[in-house]
Amino acid sequence: MSDTLEIKDLKATVDGHEILKGLSLTVPKGEVHAIMGPNGSGKSTLAKVMAGHEDYEVTGGSVLMDGEELFDMDVDERSRAGFFLAFQYPLEIPGVSNANFLRAARQARLPEGEEIDAVAFYKEMYARMDELGMDRKFTGRSVNEGFSGGEKKRNEILQMVMLDPKYAVLDETDSGLDIDALKVVAHGVNAMRSPERGFLVITHYQRLLDYIVPDVVHVLFDGRIVKTGGKDLALKLEAEGYDWVKDEVLANA
Amino acid sequence: MTQTEESVWIDAPPVQDLDLEMPEWYQAFQKASWDRFRELPVATRKDEDWRYADLKKSRFEKLYPVQSATVPGTVDTKPLDNTIAHFVFVNGELVDFDVSNLPDGLICAPINNAISEGGDRLKPYFDVDAKRLGDEKFAALNGAATNYGIFVYAPKNLEVDGSIFVQHYVSGESAPVFPRTLIIADNNAKVSVIERFESLDDSTPGLSVGVCDLHADHGGIVQHVLVQDLNKSSKQVHLGTSRSGKDSSIKSVILNLGSAWTRNESINRMTEDGANTKLYGANLANELQEFDQRTLQIHDAQHTTSDLLIKNALYDKSRVIFGGLIQVLPGAHHTDSYQSCRNLIGSEEAEINAMPGLEIDADQVRCSHGATSGQISDEEIFYLRSRGIPTDEARRIVSCGFLAEAFSKIENPQLVEWLSGMIADKFDSI
């Protein structure tokens, strides 16, 4: 189906252990879906598998982005095709300035032989940084090097804004953020919500969902989606924890 | 020493006829240097300062007298924006210069002019017996044969923004040049010099044996940048020293891209309390290139600080040698000194030998030294690829970044960009 990010019966292993055991969900464009789940349920594995990290082996199922198989594309092709992952732990790239990094990512999206318009690029980057409350000094600093946790996450959002993906997966973007940084990051995401874009927000805590209000909440447990509901589901999980979900799963087993 | 080695060495250097217009002390210095050159043995395998070096590369089969210079049409005379003076030497001959933006009071001239006009004033800066790190013979050769170079003197309290840019071109079969650089910042003066070595063609073997001495007096600030981009048939020996006085600061930056073989020495003395030196170097080696760097940080006063960061990236069958020593002399209490050599190994056939060292004879000293080697992190490449950057480009960006990080503490973005650009240009050919 086009205009959706469709994960179908996804199975994946890491070091021979099956982590995803037939995960299915569909994010239509224009919607924000949240995935919540206890530690070890497979949340970050899902994110890494979709991005194409080589430590994870896909053993079954598929992920279709607007009808196109993600797993038929290389890591960098996925990004250029419109997939974006905001990392839980963004990497530090010594000696590579933030500006040059973003510029290379934008350049990679241009046809062969076409040069990026540097002036327009900087102008746009500065405007986006202003919106995210990022100081200009971050353009010259090495990517994420010496950044605080909040600065790194803000930088992920800056990359997302500059790369304008069709679908964005946010992997525990709230972890390590104080409430002010959380609000800034949420504001950046909310400003990007559009009928042309889908979001999958992975989080352990409901707190983030106070600021990025999801259309649909999925509960991931033991490698599968075991419950899907509205935003109230997140509140119930926050209030009652995950035990009742586990009990339901076990009762149905 | 074998007969063969001796005959090669003695026949080799194109000794200058003594210039009778030069001051007597200088003629004596040249003669003493020549005598010393003849007396000194060539380096051997047993010499600790030549450990791991390919000694064959330090021998010169033949050297011809320099050809008279021709002004090349290909000289790249586009310096940085903030260039306050510009000199272009071809085979030691000044072929072009522009000093129209030189600030009042700053002395900047070809060194032979400065010597001949300076009476005895420069005599203390020419010491035949100056300490070296195994390159005494090359230093003596330079002393005997030097015929050109740049002299810079920033008088008291003159803080100069912008840089003096000196281009050295080597041209002709086995043509040797013997440049000498002398930079002095008097009390509270500040000055910056950038020197770049290039060949005029891609294949003719040339040789540069250079000496560069930096001096900063009380509160003085000196920055010296050396870019070596000779063709891959050429060789370079570059012997740097620095002396920092009270509360002064000297920063040396070295970028090695070209040449078949380069030997760098850097001896940095902090002689008075509060002195500071920095040495930042990046070496990008490929094919059969060999870069050999020996450094010494000498703390000879209290509360002195130094920082050394050398970054090497090696490809193909290239070799890099780093020998570094921090010496904290007796009484140099409260020294704060760092030395780090980090290496990116891009080929199984490349070879790095890093020998960091420490000698501490004082109290309340903080020193750290170390060397690391590794490959590009897969996680970093994955991160770049996840942003749409193709694998090859991601590797290039991360590798360039690795080397450029050596310059991250230079507080001049345009200079850093210029250096990084040259690194990127060479990476494009690897």
- Termini separation of chain B comes to 39 Å
Shape of chain B: globular
Secondary-structure element order of chain B, N to C: HHEEEHHEEEEEEEEEEEEEEEEEHHH
CATH architecture of chain A: 3-Layer(aba) Sandwich
What oligomerization state is this entry in? Answer: heterodimer
Greatest interface by residues involved? A-B, 28 and 26 residues
Distance between the termini of chain A: 31 Å
Largest sheet of chain A: 6 strands, mixed
Total individual domains of chain A: 1
Strand content of chain B: 35-45%
Number of strands of chain B: 20
Provide structural commentary:
The complex is a heterodimer of chains A (253) and B (430). Chain A has 253 residues and is of the alpha/beta class. Chain A has a single domain, classed as Rossmann fold (3-Layer(aba) Sandwich). Helices cover 38% and strands 29% of the residues of chain A. Chain A is built from 10 helices and 12 strands. In chain A, a hairpin with a 2-residue loop joins strand 1 and strand 2 (17-28). In chain A, helix 6 packs parallel to helix 7. By secondary structure, chain B is of the alpha/beta class. Chain B has one domain. Chain B contains 7 helices and 20 strands. Chain B has helices spanning 3-11, 24-39, 111-117, 136-145, 378-385, 391-404, 413-427, and strands at 83-90, 93-98, 107-110, 148-154, 163-170, 175-177, 179-185, 190-199, 206-216, 221-229, 235-244, 249-256, 261-270, 276-285, 290-299, 305-314, 319-328, 336-345, 351-360, 366-374. Chain B has a 10-stranded mixed sheet, with helices on one face. In chain B, strands 3, 4, 6, 7, 9, 11, 13, 15, 17 and 19 form a 10-stranded mixed sheet that branches. In chain B, helix 5 (378-385) crosses helix 6. Residues 1-15 of chain B have low confidence and may be disordered. The chains are: A alpha/beta (253), B alpha/beta (430). Chains A and B meet through helix 2, strand 7 and helix 3 of A and helix 5 and helix 6 of B.
